[in-house]
Each structure stands twice: as structure tokens, then as C-alpha cells.
Amino acid sequence: xxxxxxxxxxxxxxxxxxxxxxxxxxxxxxxxxxxxxxxxxxxxxxxxxxxxxxxxxxxxxxxxxxxxxxxxxxxxxxxxxxxxxxxxxxxxxxxxxxxxxxxxxxxxxxxxxxxxxxxxxxxxxxxxxxxxxxxxxxxxxxxxxxxxxxxxxxxxxxxxxxxxxxxxxxxxxxxxxxxxxxxxxxxxxxxxxxxxxxxxxxxxxxxxxxxxxxxxxxxxxxxxxxxxxxxxxxxxxxxxxxxxxxxxxxxxxxxxxxxxxxxxxxxxxxxxxxxxxxxxxxxxxxxxxxxxxxxxxxxxxxxxxxxxxxxxxxxxxxxxxxxxxxxxxxxxxxxxxxxxxxxxxxxxxxxxxxxxxxxxxxxxxxxxxxxxxxxxxxxxxxxxxxxxxxxxxxxxxxxxxxxxxxxxxxxxxxxxxxxxxxxxxxxxxxxxxxxxxxxxxxxxxxxxxxxxxxxxxxxxxxxxxxxxxxxxxxxx
Length: 476
What we know:
Blueprint: H1 2-31, E1 34-40, H2 59-66, E2 69-71, E3 74-75, H3 81-90, H4 122-127, E4 132-138, E5 156-160, E6 175-180, E7 191-193, E8 197-200, E9 217-218, E10 221-222, H5 229-243, E11 249-254, E12 262-265, H6 266-271, H7 278-303, E13 310-316, H8 322-325, H9 341-344, E14 348-351, E15 360-362, E16 366-367, H10 370-378, H11 393-396, E17 407-412, E18 415-420, E19 423-429, E20 432-437, H12 453-468
Parallel strand pairs: 1-11, 1-13, 2-15, 3-16, 4-5, 4-11, 6-8
Antiparallel strand pairs: 2-14, 5-9, 6-12, 7-8, 9-10, 13-14, 17-18, 18-19, 19-20
Helix pairs in contact: 5-7
């Protein structure tokens, strides 16, 4: 009898210890908020409802601004995909480690073309303090073995490695597809209209071979994906959230929408049947599909009661390529690939319900590099001293005044730029500098280089000083 009583006491103690451990583990996990980065591809500054677009409704993305903070001056580290993503992932100006250019096509598989393995990413930093880390979507940081997401801190990966991917492969079932071509049937120029397939020569070159040696991967293994790719990525992301709801997680949901190729799903094409220009209609379908997908991710957080435990960032990797996609960067000048604001300033939103103020606007310059520094702070992770990003939390909760950044530097071959305060230095031609005051000339229409030579000289000197600390390109 006494032995049985002692065994029962021992079992009760064991259960109590287990419950205590589980409670402590749960409390520890909630002290580290979940972190989600929703990264759109080639989405222009002016294409969201909260950014002023009245043509294409984006209520779900807009809700992030309504429930959080919209940054008016949100920047990325390059005007195109791969170096921009490298800057966000490392919290560093990518030129510091030679990641200056944008590998495309077969260059994705050339040895040595990729983000250097020695660079520590946001995924590695969070993984090393207990986060479960996942990447869903586009990688574009190198397509060979040393650069795989698993080797940069991600526990799970579903997506592709190169710069782009078809949303639906040939024969393009269920979508309307517009492809760039050098020539139309009969050798003509302009636009050729089929039933669900359209050719256009307005860009002067063929659609890139996105899917060549670029399969959809689960981990390291190719899979056959039958869903429209934006929907597939949303499916995988919501599954990741649900499976890891009991512990802190970091999810990079790296959509390839609204990057080319232009492919609009049937239901969304019907939604925008009132848009006469088929080019713009396909883009609208793709953006609306992306918005609904963001809505599904937000709903998954509500369903699993994770909203107050999760900080969500939304941004684009660079400005929109207007001629290619119709993507608007209004009211900014320039587009993807340029050093004007339209190439570098992007839609940038953050939400953390119950912690950050709701429906507010932040007007000081911030950078995609700041996401790493902010995430590391929230996760109680050590931050490398060599990062360029800044923890934004004290600025957003009002505990710190001033501005996070005084200066931003950009370099890509002969194209260069610097923002210092309200002044912007731009070079789109070798040894040819332009000067703009963004406070009075947001559209960069009035070159002040001849009017303020002393300001021009000062900014050139600052750019040169930054440039001396940068590395030569690892590849071109």
C-alpha cells in the first residue's frame, strides 16, 4: 500500500514538473515573437491602395498599414532582385561583401555566383536562438550547392532558386499569359493576340528562360506543383505557420508575384474584365491574387490566435519595372534598375497588433536592412557589429527620437546614388552626378547640381568615403 502511494506521489511530481517545464517553455517562446516577412517581387511604390492606387483593390495588404505602420521612405539596398535580397538577409549594404550585381539565367548556376556563405543571415541569427525558420518562394542568392537556403539558416524550404519562375507551365492552363518576343508571327512588331496567349515585342527581347534548370524544390528535391504558384506558396506558408504555432518561428514568404512572366489566373482576369488594356488587366489579376494570398496568411494567424505574438513586415524587393509590367512607382521617378527613387523606394509596412500603434505613418527614411536588426533585438539574439541596419523598435514605440539613418549609399557599376538628409545624389552615367532635394522635389525633376555646387561636392565626398569601404564585385 505504502509502495503504491509512493509511486502515485512520484507520478504526480513528474506530471507537475512536466507541466512546469512546458509552462516555462511556452512563456520563453512567447518572449520571442514570431517574425514574418512578406516580400513581394517588383511591386511598384504606387500600386497599393494604401499607397494611392484606386484601380486595383488591395484590402488585405492595406490592412497591414491600417493595423500598423506605413513607412513613406522605405528603401532597399539595390534596384534589382538579388543584391536587394542579400541586403535584407544580412542587414548589410551588399556592396560591402562584393554582392553588387544581379545574376540571371544560366549565371545562377555558375560556381561563385551567390551570396557568400560566410555572410550570416537573419535566418541563421534567429535559428541560433531557438527559432524554427522557413523560406517559401523565391531565393535568388545562388543556385549551386554552397548557396542553398539550408546552408544559410533555413530549416525548411519550398520554392525555387533562380530569379523567376512561371506561375503555370506550358500549356498555360487556367491562365492568360503575355510573353515578350523579338518578333511576332510573320516577323511583325507590336502585339499578337491569341485566345489565352499574347505575344508582345514592346520590350525588344524574348521572355527569359526562367524555368530552365530551375525546378520547384521541397528542401533539395524537385516536386511537381500543379497549383498557380502564388497559391502554392500561400498554401505552404499557412501550413508552416500552423505546424509551428507552439514555438517561435521566422517565416520569409518570398513571393515571385508580381514579377514576370505575366500570367493572370482566370478568376482574377474575370474580376478585372473592365480594364481594357490586356497588359494592365493581367498585372491587376496577379496583384489581386497576391493580395488575397496575403489575406490568407493573415487569416491563418487569426485562426491560430497568433496575431499578438507575431510581427509582420511587408515590402517589395525593388521598384516596379513599369514598361515591362505596367507597375507604377508614382509619384516617384524611375523604375526597377535605376537609382532614382522609383528603383529604390518601395512599399514598406509593419504590423504587430497590441504592441505597435495602428494606422500610423512614419516619415523618416528606413531600410530593408533594419528588419534584421529589429528581429535580432526582439529575439534577444546577438547582433553582428558590422551590420548597417538599425533596430527600429525604439523609433516606432516613441522611446527614441531622431532618425534611424542619416545616409544611404548605393553602387551598381556606373549607376550610383546617395541619400543624405533630404538631398539625393544620383549618377546614371559614368562620372555624371545629379542632385535633388527630395523634400521639395520628390519626383526628382529639378537637377540642383549647378545651383548648389557646395552641396554637390559634400555629397560626392560622402559617397567616395563610403565607396572606399566597399569591396570589388565578386561577379558581374
